[in-house]
Amino acid sequence: MDATLKNQQSLQNQPTYDVIVAGAGPVGLFLACELALASCSVLLLEKAANPHSPLKQLPFGIRGLNAPSIEALYRRGLLPELELHKRLQNPHTNAGQGPRRQVGHFAGIPLHEGDIDPTQWKYRLPSSTATSLITEMQELETVLARRAEALGVTILRGLAIPDVQQTAEEVTVRAADQSFTAKWLVGCDGSRSVVRKASNFEFAGTEPEFTGYSTQVDLADPEKLKPGRNLTPTGMYLQSQPGYLMIQDFDGGAFHATGQPATREHVQAVLRRISNTDVTVSALHVASTWTDRARQATTYRHGRVLLAGDAAHIHAPLGGQGLNLGLGDALNLGWKLAATIHGQVPEGLLDSYTTERHPIGAQVLDWSRAQAALMSPSPENRALNAIVRDLLNTRDGATYIAGRVWGIFTHYKLGSSHPLVGRSVPNFELEDGTTIGELLRDGHGILLDFDSNTSLKTLAQEFDNQLKYVSGRVKDQLGVSALLIRPDGFVAWATDGEPAGHELREAAARWFMESSETKGREELQFSTVSNIPANSGNKLNLNTNRRNYEDIAKMLSSISNKLPYTAKDLGHSEYPEDRNSSKTEYPYLRLIQDFNLTFNLSRYNNITLGTEYPSYFVNDYYQIQATPFVAVYNRNHKMTGSFTQPKNIQDILTAVRKNK
Fold first, then answer.
1. Which helix (H) or strand (E) holds 658?
2. I need a labelling partner for 172 at 20 to 30 A (CA). Which of 280, 322, 389, 629 fits?
3. Least confident window among 242-251, 266-275, 311-320
């Protein structure tokens, strides 16, 4: 029985999935891995029955991974599974060795290793992964498919999606004679995305300047063509190895628009015109066409349908930016969509996918347009090409362009002035040799604390389903004392000094939800009041005066100017007279905890912050009638005075000084 038919029959009673991903290319596969890592049920549908294609294999399938993509694969433990880069020949045929070794290009203009100054990239550590890496599409898809299946993703091939229907609760897609339902649908189905078209996404942009050809040919006279990349008065051709040609013909994309197959005769005519030779193509084995058309969906989400990769944006494949842009989409979307599915969703989390990734996509499209312009044979653009070439021969120019091409400058605007916030976290290495990249493999966020601040540890426990606390010294902490790292490895909050509790809490609440054990907790259980002196002579009497914490709020407000003044603002009720009543309500003291975090009171071993619930021992011991209440002791642990609602701090200081 046909494998596809078997798959269809097995899905007659298919349950609703969390997510259907359309398209089993690298982007769809990586997204499926991210979702499955977060315990989502995922169905991956691919229209091609066979995952193998000559265009995915060398040399056509060669791709360059940039720094964020390499980091993403490393942080999920996938990088060691890529092997081809260890034995691939440098794709830049004209590359020499030493300082002038070519390590990339911009619009065909070479980037030389000796011209790039990596010391300008402040947050690149010696333990960082590579800035670029050569791979092959087929190998990358094989590695990702193997991981997806190991995580429980269902992959069905040979099933094209012609139609999409969504309601407020779910999405249904039709593939062959079957229907599949999920809570969410993500279109990763390429530049001609059916999901995008069926869901009425607006796809805006610019029309092409050229038709590109990727071909495998036999040449009767190969010596007539130069190796490597060659700009000519009429276009460009690249011969990566004998018989493998990429050609750019600046025809405004006219031939590609016809939809006609590229014949041997047509390829020969174009090649002769572009190369200005009478070279003969004796046989044509593989030919595909493409353009530099640059378009982008105006939003990446419509209801329960989202887009990623080429389904969300298309541009010329110059510099290998398309694959990297798509992998970045998948990394950004995966954990946010999973949190939405599991109900662990701060407001606006899923919409931040478009907010963060759309500007990155727009930048790549602009850079693609710029490269197309620099490669154009017009006199004006060739003059501009010469100027850019001169800039790339300078250290600062080459370093800047390399940083952009390799994704080192990738930055999300998260509203913080700290230079690390919104950037990929440096690969800090702890003293035991563990790196942050390794700690991110489970897909959880991290609160990284270099000073072992117990206040930060306590805060992390409130988000313990999504956030783990890591403390310890590192070999080079780059002047930073603490960082909040999202599951995608990007920094959400950072400080170089003492952590401001309210800022950290706001950052954590923006990206994570508190665990059910701590969400809504009304009592501050920061530490337990202990070691109350037993020799003051005070009699333990029941005190039924249960004033609320309004006076404490007033006292702290006078110090921090951040706390509210009234019980109503604090969000709690008056204490009932009978403390044993089942209706007893306790104050929400989150603001006091923030105050403690801001001033890091845990540094002082003579300051204890806590709650007396449920014993009310402190209240009964001192017979407190109103707050704030201050007791003063001498070095012999004898109480020498007390103050109820003190009006002047000098009175307290005078009492303390008398005990010296």
1. none
2. 322
3. 311-320
Both tokens assigned to 265: 């005769």
* Tally of CA atoms within 13 A in the half-sphere of 271 that contains its CB: 32
Domains of the chain: residue spans and CATH: 17-101+129-205+295-374 (3.50.50.60), 210-291 (3.30.70.2450), 436-511 (3.40.30.120), 550-657 (no CATH)
- Encode 401-422: b = buried (16+ Cβ within 10 Å), e = exposed: bbbbbbbbebbbebebebebbb
Q: Which residues contact 447 (CB under 8 A, 6 or more apart)?
A: 456, 459, 460, 467, 468, 469, 470, 482, 483, 484, 485, 508
For residue 208, the one-letter residue type is P
Confidence of residue 372 (pLDDT cuts 50, 70, 90): very high
Q: Specify whether the CB–CB gap between 630 and 652 falls below 8 A.
A: yes
Residue 295 sits at φ, ψ, to 5 deg, of -135, 155
* 352 strand-pairing partners: none
- Residue 381: φ, ψ to 5°: -75, -30
Q: Give how far Cα 578 sits from Cα of 384, 502, 547, 582, Å.
A: 83, 34, 12, 9
- Please give the Cα distance from 509 to 503 (Å, whole number): 10
Which of 225, 239, 280 minimizes the C-alpha distance to 91?
239
Q: How far apart are the first and last CA of the chain?
A: 93
Q: What is the DSSP code string of 147-203?
A: HHHHTT-EEEES----EEEE-SS-EEEEETTEEEEEEEEEE---TT-HHHHHTT--E
CB proximity list for 176: less than 8 A, separation 6 or greater = 4, 8, 159, 160
Quickly tell me which residue has 């007390």 as its tokens. Answer: 642
d(CA 426, CA 440): 12
Largest CA distance in the chain: 110
| Cα–Cα dist 453/599, whole Å | 11
- Dump pLDDT digits (tens) for 456-512: 888 888 887 788 999 999 988 999 999 999 999 999 999 998 887 788 888 998 999
Mean pLDDT of the region 85-108: 66
3-state secondary structure of 408: coil
Over residues 300-311, the pLDDT tens digits come to 999 999 999 999
**Residue 592: pLDDT band with limits 50, 70, 90:** low
The backbone torsions φ and ψ at residue 45, rounded to the nearest 5 degrees and listed phi first, read: -110, 130
Locus of tokens 């478009």 = 354
Q: b vs e for 345-360, b when ≥16 Cβ sit within 10 Å of the residue's Cβ?
A: ebeebbebbbebbbeb
Q: Residues 444, 496: contact at Cβ < 8 Å?
A: no
Provide the pLDDT for residue 15.
Answer: 76
596-613 pLDDT, tens digit per residue, is 666 666 666 566 666 555
Task: State the DSSP H helix or E strand holding residue 540, giving kind and residue range, or none if neither.
Answer: none
CA angle 320, 489, 324 (to 5 degrees): 10
- The pTM for the full model equals 0.77
Q: What is the DSSP letter of 523?
A: S
Whose structure tokens read 């609703």?
16
Give the burial class of 3: count Cβ atoms within 10 A of its Cβ; 0-12 exposed, 13-18 middle, 19 or more buried: exposed
